[in-house]
Amino acid sequence: MSNKIHDVAIVGFGPVGQLLAILLGRRGHDVLVLERWPQPYDKPRAVHFDHEIGRIFQAAGICDEVMAITDPVPDFYEWRNRDGDPLVRIDWSGTGESGWPTANFFSQPELERVLAKAAEAISSVTVRRGVEVTGLAEQPDHVELTTGDDAQFAARWVIGADGANSLVRRHMPTETTDLGFFFDWLIVDTVPHEQREWFPMNWQLCDPARPTTIVSGGPGRRRWEFMRLPGETVADLDTQETAWQLLEPWGRNPGNTTLERHTVYTFQARWVDTWRAGRLLLAGDAAHLMPPFAGQGMCSGLRDALNLSWKLDLVLHGKAQPDLLDTYSSERSAHVRHAIDMSIALGEVICVLDEQAAAQRDQRMIAGAADPAHVLPVGAPPVLGDGVLQRLPDGRTAPSVGHLTPQYRVRRGDTTARLDDLTGFGFTVLTDGLDQAVLSPEHRRFLDDIGATLVSLTSDPTGPGYIDVDRGYLPHMREHGHIAAIIRPDFYLFGAAHDVDELAALLDQLRTQLRIER
After folding, report:
1. What is the DSSP letter of 381?
2. Could you tell me the CA-to-CA distances from 390 to 402, 497, 513 in Å, in that order?
3. How far apart are CA 80 and CA 199, in angstroms?
4. Is 467 within 8 Å of 412 (Cβ atoms)?
5. Is the pLDDT assigned to residue 335 strictly greater than 80?
6. Band of residue 379 on the pLDDT scale cut at 50, 70, 90
7. What is the mean pLDDT of the chain?
8. Tens digits of per-residue pLDDT, 153-208?
9. For the residues of 151-217, what is the DSSP string, one character each?
10. Cβ(366)–Cβ(78) under 8 Å?
11. β-pairing, 453-458 with 466-467?
């Protein structure tokens, strides 16, 4: 075994492992990636990411490269019954609250090429393909990793981003909660030969005779998904002949379409109860699986990567105690549960095979005028679970914290850009015109130590500081009587303050919750 102990070893080099390598490598950490397969898998899988994930790609410094391979949705996501009546119409057009298109479609092999190139360009990141990890042995200050060819490596922390059959997970004392939601669907990825506009770009046929999904597969690609019916076997469904038979009513045939891939997926809903055990951590499919009906599977894994990376960064730099990493599990587990519950709720609407039940569903949804707020079982936006969040005096989490914050354009000097492009990676303290002089020297040193950026906002286009170009931040803060808000590196709200004294107390809370000693 080499005497070298890496900062982090990432097992698995799919999108989650790739993003982790980029985020940690960009912070200067020594990252070793071990991927069992010698070559990248060249077939489509995930196809959708939302505006929040676009913001994460922005934080990783690859937004232009990602947008070059992406189809932003120009209209809506529609569900129709067999007669063509709209059951629900979800507006996916325009820019989302994170400053990125609301919904985006892509081909996963192309996305992985962008992510892999960015990771491998970082001098502190080492990627070894064709190396299968077969064993882990945790030591007091590191973990030893053994591979199939008996090579050995060591790292202070090991992250299992190694998928649903995770080896890292098998070395952790964690239980899996499985909701027993199983449906088989045939996924058919195609490349139409003609260039045309598909309208709507993405929609769902809610026909009890065969529920079907029709969506973009990224620029120049289309995906069809067909639900397996009673009496059909997976073997019968998962053939090229069956794929062409199901595509024929949609006008697709070998003369006008290339069949890129067909495979049967079993949609599942499960998560592990513990995401960290000692120096072992899990992310992505190693920690959770969900049906694709909300398009949040890969998105959830990339959120894992950002949440974990900023906390691990503080620990590796010796600024925070390792038990900060316990909040990764508690925060992300609750957030993922929301995504899983939402995916199941949507699936229960879509996967209806009974004619009478489908007719009743159609009648109810048509009566709701295809308005998602009236016809879909979708509740409040997701929030983080217990973790690094502002507390009330009685110890409870303060209301309204732990939710995703928006990203608007601001101007500083001659530069107008989205907020994150001006502040960079790290904590952001938004204030209503406050100068840093209102902070004590101790609080200023603390903010410098964690790499926070103080953003003094103004609505005066000629004033100093950061100009709130889109008038998105200041009106909201003033409506709620806040003079300051602290945004975490993963864009979620830590807390807000009504006056300078509350801001000082809020900074003390942040320091305590980050496990940073005075």
Report:
1. P
2. 9, 10, 9
3. 13
4. yes
5. yes
6. low
7. 96
8. 999 999 999 999 999 999 999 999 999 999 999 999 999 999 999 999 999 999 99
9. -EEEEEEEEE---TT-HHHHTS---EEE----EEEEEEEEEESS----SSSEEEEE-TT--EEEEE-
10. no
11. parallel
Q: What's the pLDDT score for residue 351?
A: 96
For residue 292, give the 3-state DSSP assignment.
helix
Phi and psi at 195, nearest 5°, equal: -95, 125
Q: HSE-up of 161 (CA within 13 Å, CB side)?
A: 31
CA–CA distance, 299 with 290 (Å, rounded to integer): 11
At 477, list the tokens: 């803060």
* DSSP summary character for residue 82: T
Quote the CA–CA distance of 164 and 185 in Å, as a whole number.
Answer: 18
Strand 409-412, strand 276-277: pairing: unpaired
pLDDT at 381 over 90: no
Q: How far apart, in whole angstroms, are the C-alpha atoms of residue 59 and residue 51?
A: 13
Is the Cβ–Cβ distance between 24 and 8 less than 8 Å?
yes
CA distance linking residue 49 with residue 483, whole number of Å: 33
Residues 6+ positions from 52 with CB-CB distance below 8 Å: 96, 98, 100, 299, 303, 404, 491
Amino acid letter for position 265? Y
Is the confidence at residue 378, as pLDDT, over 70?
no
- Statement: residue 119 has pLDDT above 70: yes
Structure tokens at 301: 């894994």
DSSP of 353-371, one letter per residue?
--HHHHHHHHHHHHHTTT-
